Hints:
- Chain A has 159 residues and is α+β, with helices and mostly antiparallel strands.
- Chain A has helices at 2-22, 38-48; strands spanning 53-55, 58-61, 65-68, 72-78, 88-95, 102-107, 116-121, 127-135, 140-151, 157-158.
- Chain A has a single domain (2-151), classed as Immunoglobulin-like, CATH 2.60.40.2470.
- The two termini of chain A are 13 Å apart.
- Chain B has strands at 4-7, 11-12, 17-24, 34-35, 46-53, 56-63, 72-78, 83-91, 96-105.
- Strand 6 of chain A pairs antiparallel with strand 6 of chain B.
Amino acid sequence: MRKSLGSTRRRFLGLAGSAAAIGVVPVVSLRPAAATPETMTAAIRNVVGGAVVQTGKVKLDIPPLVENGNTVPMTVSVTSPMTPTDYVKSIHVFNEKNPQPNMGNFYLGPRAGRAQISTRVRLADSQKIIAIARLSDGSFWSVSADVVVTLAACTEEVM
Amino acid sequence: MASALINVPKKAKRGDTIEIKTLMSHIMETGYRHTAAGQVVPRDIITSFTCRFNGAEIFRADLFPATAANPFITFFTVATESGKFDFEWIGDNGFAETASASITVE
């Protein structure tokens, strides 16, 4: 099982890597860009395009130490007046070590009143989580959080 | 089989920001798990959640295998007028469920 998991992940990384090589040179200026695995960088680029991602405005509430990766509470909030001219359009959450880099896309509008969402996620490993918000003026803001997971999700055997 | 839990305030003052909590029972099988025999368990997840108020979309989410079983999603909206929230979950293998809740705004 461990062997087949490895081959899946390797193939996935390989595919994403070649996609990144063919595509335009990434200009995502996230601060932890150097430490971010290829797949997450590619997934982020799919959302932000060539835009610069600034750090700030976004708050990511997730426990720093998780016992069970199968259900981890997570809240993302963005500092925004949420008026018809200045609001949060969407919130995107990414991870670097799950089989897939995307964790969720949430689309809001000015009438949300408060730019905040909560959900429960799975984490396959100890890793960095990144939340990115798209504002109505087209700017992108991000925050990252490190989570240590003792019991991983997603890949265990089914009895 | 599937069932939804919705938490929306019954009443609100006009202009108040209210929180909406939703939970849909679903296995959210990732498609990355294997049986002891080495077979991949096929993916079976909810891929999309939408909330509409009086017919107009106010919130939407794309879900992935990284969402925990029984997807729990909360978000906010401003109470503008009395009306009805419609919730819709769509997923693999033709999964489609709806729920609704009414609010009185005074």
